[in-house]
Structure formats: C-alpha cells, structure tokens
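User: Let's play a game. I give you a shape written as tokens, and you guess the letters that built it. Ready? Here's round one.
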C-alpha cells in the first residue's frame, strides 16, 4: 500500500514541465546525456517520472499491462502522481477536488478537500461508492456517457448565483478507506450517475466541517 507522503514532494509545477539544463558549460557531459537518452525504449520503461529532471519522457502504448509485477509498480507510480496533481490543483486554484482510486485488489484510495469529505466519510457516500463498485461490468463497447437530462452542471459554468464563494483551504490527503472495500468495476451507468448527482446536490445545502477524528497526514505540503 503506497504512502501518500510520496505523492507530495516539493517539486514545483515549473520543474515538472521544463527540463533542467546542465548549466556548467561542460558540453561533453551534455553530449553523453543525449546519447544515454537515445537508448531504445522498452515496455519496462512505462512510466514518465516527473522527478527525473532533464531526462526525456518516453511515450508508451496505452494498453493493459499483462505482467502483474509491472502492473503493480505502474499503479503505485501513477496513483501517486494523480494524487499529487489533485492536491496541487486544489491549492493552486482554490477549487474543491474529490479523487477516488480503487486498486484491482479492492483497496480504495481517496483525496478530498474539506467540503467534499462527507462524500467519502459519511455512510451515504460510502454506500454509494460500494454500490458502484459492486455493480456488474458494463458490456464491451458500452457507452458510459450520461444522458443530457441527467447530466451534472459543468464545473466551467458559473455557479456563483447559487453557491457561496469557496475559501482557499488546504486539502487533506487520505489513505485507503478499507482494505477490501469492494472490487473495482469500470464505468458508471446513467442511474448510478443520477444517484450520485442527487446526493451531491443534497450536500450543497449545508456546510461541513472535517470530522474531528479524521486522520490528517502530516507529510503534505503547506
């Protein structure tokens, strides 16, 4: 089980997006690094590690990884990365974020900002998540989109007319909900999406404070 502390290092977005220059004037070192990057890309090099400064990112084919060991490693890396991105999004833009990741063994990992914590801490939210995970697999090629009549408002649409301003509050990363919380299933049918939408709208009517007993990880960024 990955520690969420690994997902909140001190790397800034600028460092993630821009390659590091050598900066010492030694062209020989630069050339050697270029030769090293030119090595053939293999299937084992399947993760673009943001923390590896000037190294060039390797593109991989997006398909299911059949090797169990490599699949586990990829899951740990990618989960850590998406948790970190969710945290950065909430801090940089002051938005409310809810991220839920379920491993193939049924471990549930969540990241929530304070206002959305009831969705994963209260019984109603947990029951809804478990119902979605226990639902049968959708048929191959099924359309998982939600009907327009049941669609939730886009986050890009202005909501200031019916929602109070959102304060910029730090996010609280959370670990697994429960080991064996439910087996993951892909997709959500329109009925489940509508139920989730109705639940979210019901929660908008009241302000929630984070539960006092909620464990907060001390390793996240301030």
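Assistant: Ready! My guess for every position:
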């Amino acid at each position: 089980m990955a520690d969420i502390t690994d997902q909140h290092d001190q790397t800034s977005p600028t460092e993630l997006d821009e390659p590091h220059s050598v900066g010492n004037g030694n062209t020989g070192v630069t050339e050697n690094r270029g030769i090293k990057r030119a090595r053939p890309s293999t299937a084992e090099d399947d993760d673009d590690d943001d923390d590896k400064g000037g190294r060039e990112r390797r593109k991989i084919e997006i398909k299911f990884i059949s090797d169990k060991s490599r699949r586990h490693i990829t899951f740990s890396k990618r989960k850590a990365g998406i948790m970190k991105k969710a945290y950065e999004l909430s801090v940089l833009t002051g938005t409310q974020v809810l991220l839920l990741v379920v491993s193939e063994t049924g471990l549930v990992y969540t990241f929530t900002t304070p206002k959305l914590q009831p969705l994963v801490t209260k019984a109603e939210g947990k029951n809804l998540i478990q119902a979605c995970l226990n639902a049968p697999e959708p048929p191959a090629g099924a359309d998982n989109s939600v009907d327009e009549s049941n669609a939730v408002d886009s986050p890009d649409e202005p909501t200031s007319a019916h929602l109070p301003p959102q304060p910029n509050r730090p996010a609280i990363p959370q670990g697994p909900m429960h080991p064996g919380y439910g087996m993951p299933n892909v997709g959500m049918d329109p009925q489940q999406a509508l139920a989730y939408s109705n639940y979210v709208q019901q929660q908008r009517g009241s302000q929630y404070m984070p539960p006092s007993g909620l464990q907060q990880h001390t390793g996240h960024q301030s």
